[in-house]
Amino acid sequence: MSKRSSWSIPYVVFLVLFVVLPLVLVLMYAFQDGTGHFTLKNIGKFFTDKDALSTFAVSVEVALENTAICILLGYPAAWILSNKKYNRSAVTIILFIMPMWINALMRTLATAQLFTMLGISLGKGTLLFGMVYDYLPFMIYPIYNVLNKMDKSYAEAAVDLGATPWKAFWKVTVPLSMPGVMSGVLMVFMPTVSTFAISEFLTNNKIKLFGTIIQENINSSAWNYGAALAFIMLIIIGLTSLLSKDKEQAEGALI
Amino acid sequence: MKKILAKVYIWILLIILYAPLVFIAVCSFTESRVLGSWSGFSFKLYQNLLTGIMPGEASLIDAVDNTLFIALISAVLSTLLGTVAAIGIYNLKGKYRKAVLFANNIPMINPDIITGVSLFLLFVFLHFSQGMVTVILAHVTFGTPYVVLSVMPRLQQMNPNIYEAALDLGATPFQALRKVLIPELRPGMASGFILAFTMSLDDFAVTFFTRGTVGLDTLSTYIYTDARKGGLTPELRPLMTIIFLVILVLLLVINIRKEKQAKKLQYIKK
């Protein structure tokens, strides 16, 4: 069957054209001025642009808070759902991931409208609530998957050997479920930084996130600056995925 | 006691998660143009939506048509490209295989906005005018990796000798492909297709950057433009309610059937 390796050629060509080349273009536009000459001005502009810098800081802050809240709310939920004592049906987990299938913009608009109706003014609080609401399923699902596949006898062995159930949970179950938490973090953190539209809807245009300024620059034909901002985001993605990979391997080594 | 606490916690989360969806569903049964105000029970919005007669908002139907058309075409293309690619990648070795799988992961790790902006720059760079074709190409770009990753495990589970046996017994390579390989891969192709289809249905950011300025709208971009203009088209409420119910019923039926089958299997094993 080894001749079949040539079957990968169409997709390799496709990947080069539609995945690799576009990223090279982001890099190219980021380091070019309007006339096509090399420049560091676009990147430099970001570090002197107060508006962009504060948007960036707010985005990272909101994303960190969102990720933390999602772990705090999602981990217990995933644990309960994966525990046969409390939940015997796979249907409950389906109920948790179901809202992901409904158009995110529509859900966000409905959430914002509910807040307005209840007399809660739109701002940082509603933004965080809406973000948690949008991303909680993405945290619960990977943690649930890991916990569900985990061999329960490890925790039982710890208890048999004299650990309290609480200690067994912290020393055995939590470390073993870290890969799930890590993929949850990846699925929540970066998308929060990069969303646009959702933050405007939830705060009535009061708070912008990083994705929005990329979109604004691209849409107002400031392609080079927009590409520079996208490039900065790419670097952060690279860093977070590297960090989480190292962590996962370290966890694996411990086991 | 612990059990009750656990149940209560799960139910509170579910109630919060579903509140906005229920809110839309309730508001779909009133005529009021403003979301959240109640002007008496009515099926008018459903009637408007299903007959396609909407006061000044006929383009909603076009947006729904476009969304379904783009999702269907791009999912079919993704499935074809991804299946062929998976067979190829499965037969690759070492560094080369790793490199292709790495590139395959990029569209899945990248946030939508990066995929959207980078493809936008590509089409600008190539002077390719943007519209339906570029949106479909973009959706194939983020849909195919899911097909590849769904089909690969099936290939790994498969006994490669079956295919060789078919050839030894006189099948042409094409016959062996159609009669042996494809049936083995079909479940993987199906779940890849469903993933690509739903990712396409749900996409906003990538479509937003690759649709150009020809006035092409999908449901997501339609809602975005609509919300920026101020009021949401009221007929969106019954539309969302119908989509919600269809997905809920589909998921529940599929999973209850799965659970029953699993129980049956357990019973047989005993």
Task: Note down, in words, how this protein is organized.
The complex is a heterodimer of chains A (255) and B (270). Chain A has twelve helices and no strands. With 255 residues, chain A is mainly α. Chain A has a single domain (50-254), classed as MetI-like fold, CATH 1.10.3720.10. In chain A, helix 3 (50-82) crosses helix 6, helix 6 (124-149) packs antiparallel against helix 9 (178-194) and helix 9 (178-194) runs antiparallel to helix 12 (223-254). The two termini of chain A are 37 Å apart. Mean pLDDT of chain A is 85; it is low at 247-255. Chain B is built from eleven helices and no strands. Chain B has helices at 2-27, 44-51, 59-90, 94-109, 112-125, 132-157, 160-168, 173-202, 205-210, 219-229, 236-269. Chain B folds into two domains: 1-57 and 236-270, no CATH class; 60-232, MetI-like fold (Orthogonal Bundle). The longest helix of chain B is centred in the last third of the chain and has 34 residues, at 236-269. With 270 residues, chain B is mostly helical. Helices cover 79% and strands 0% of the residues of chain B. At the A-B interface, helix 1, helix 3, helix 4, helix 5 and helix 6 of A face helix 1, helix 3, helix 4, helix 5 and helix 6 of B.
Give the end-to-end Cα distance of chain A, rounded to a whole number of Å.
37 Å
* CATH architecture descriptor of chain A: Orthogonal Bundle
The radius of gyration computed from the alpha-carbon positions of chain A, rounded to a whole number of angstroms, is 22 Å
Mean pLDDT of chain A: 85
Helix content bin of chain B: over 70%
What is the share of helical residues of chain A?
over 70%
CATH topology of the largest domain in chain B: MetI-like fold
Query: Total number of β-strand segments of chain B?
Result: 0
Q: Strand count, sense and closure of the main sheet of chain B?
A: none
Strand content of chain A: under 5%
The 3D shape of chain B can be described as globular
User: What order do the SSEs of chain B take from the amino end to the carboxyl end, as H and E?
Assistant: HHHHHHHHHHH
Instruction: Quickly count the helices of chain B.
Output: 11
Structural class of chain A: mainly alpha
Terminus-to-terminus distance of chain B = 33 Å
Largest interface, Cβ cutoff 8 Å: A-B, 82 and 81 residues
Shape of chain A: globular
Total beta-strand segments of chain A: 0
